[in-house]
């Protein structure tokens, strides 16, 4: 597993398991457990996914089954909008810790910027308090635009280590990617497989045939070639195994360019400048 290094010197696995839209039952528990047994060391959760309890059980069972320690894992969760505001952040954080059955998180994100800039800034101040008090290892944001990140940097003290955003071959966000690189903020992609929509693309399938890999592996590898952290979601054991098996091959520059050329500026999620929960 490859790691990336944050602007604060800490590291994170470049590939992890996403659990968005996974039921809070044995489905979530078994997916997380299976992922950990098969080499995943990063799990991306969120309070609003309403499945942290079973994700947490999967983490505990995965740790036991894989013979590893909690410190070997990198666990992310996210603050939802009902806990925004400086004085509410700690309650949101502790709720996720309790749900997950953990003593700390490796990464805590503001899930969406929201449409109230002053509230967003106050919320980040609450995130800074958590970080400065040593309660969380790293803090970052999700779904932030360049303008929102520039405002954050101008008005606050600690720079986010990461921005988790929509990123896939139909929505390559080149300007945001370039900005994040220049600002030393890591980019992370949610729903990199577009809820499986991208897997039927002709170009992706042609490159899969050329390399002897699956379409999903091609897209995940494309993320990695761009230096993006990625968290494909699956609850199917063989797909969980397949999705992590992307470190034994590379895409050529020509293949990367062909995938880049698929961009349509097509979102499958909300526009961050308009979404407020």
Automatic annotation (TrEMBL):
Family: Belongs to the aldo/keto reductase family.
InterPro entries the record matches: AKR (IPR020471), Aldo/ket_reductase_CS (IPR018170), NAD(P)_OxRdtase_dom_sf (IPR036812), NADP_OxRdtase_dom (IPR023210)
UniProt organism field: Staphylococcus shinii
Site entry: Lowers pKa of active site Tyr: 78
Gene Ontology terms for molecular function: oxidoreductase activity, acting on the CH-OH group of donors, NAD or NADP as acceptor
Occurrences of domain NADP-dependent oxidoreductase (ranges): 15-263
Keywords attached to this entry: NADP, Oxidoreductase
PANTHER family registered for this protein in UniProt: 2,5-DIKETO-D-GLUCONIC ACID REDUCTASE, NADP-DEPENDENT OXIDOREDUCTASE DOMAIN-CONTAINING PROTEIN
Signal peptide (from-to): none
Transmembrane domains' residue ranges: none
Residues engaged in binding substrate: 111
Annotated active site: 49 (proton donor)
Pfam families to which the protein is assigned, alphabetical: Aldo_ket_red
Protein name (database record): Aldo/keto reductase
KW Oxidoreductase (keyword) present: yes
Lineage, broadest ranks: Bacteria, Bacillati, Bacillota, Bacilli, Bacillales
Domain of life assignment: Bacteria
């Amino acid at each position: 597993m490859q790691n990336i290094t944050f602007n604060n010197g800490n590291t994170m696995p470049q590939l992890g398991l996403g659990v968005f839209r996974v039921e809070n039952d044995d489905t979530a528990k078994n997916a997380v457990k299976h992922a950990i047994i098969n080499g995943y060391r990063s799990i991306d959760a969120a309070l609003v996914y309403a499945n942290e309890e079973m994700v947490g059980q999967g983490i505990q069972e995965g740790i036991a089954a894989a013979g590893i320690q909690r410190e070997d894992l990198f666990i992310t969760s996210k603050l939802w909008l009902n806990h925004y505001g400086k004085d509410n952040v700690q309650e949101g954080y502790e709720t996720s810790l309790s749900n997950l059955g953990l003593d700390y998180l490796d990464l805590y994100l503001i899930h969406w910027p929201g449409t109230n800039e002053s509230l967003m800034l106050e919320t980040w101040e609450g995130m800074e308090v958590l970080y400065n008090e040593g309660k969380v290892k790293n803090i970052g944001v999700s779904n932030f635009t360049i303008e929102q990140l520039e405002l954050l940097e101008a008005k606050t003290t600690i720079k986010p280590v990461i921005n988790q955003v929509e990123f896939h071959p139909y929505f390559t966000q080149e300007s945001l990617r370039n900005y994040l690189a220049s600002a030393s903020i890591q980019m992370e992609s949610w729903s990199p497989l577009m809820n499986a929509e991208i897997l039927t693309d002709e170009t992706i399938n042609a490159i899969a045939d050329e390399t002897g890999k699956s379409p999903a592996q091609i897209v995940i590898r494309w993320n990695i070639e761009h230096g993006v952290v990625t968290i494909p979601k699956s609850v199917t054991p063989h797909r969980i195994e397949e999705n992590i098996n992307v470190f034994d091959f590379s895409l050529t520059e020509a293949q990367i360019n062909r995938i880049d050329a698929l961009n349509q500026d097509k979102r499958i999620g909300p526009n961050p400048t308009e979404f407020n929960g």
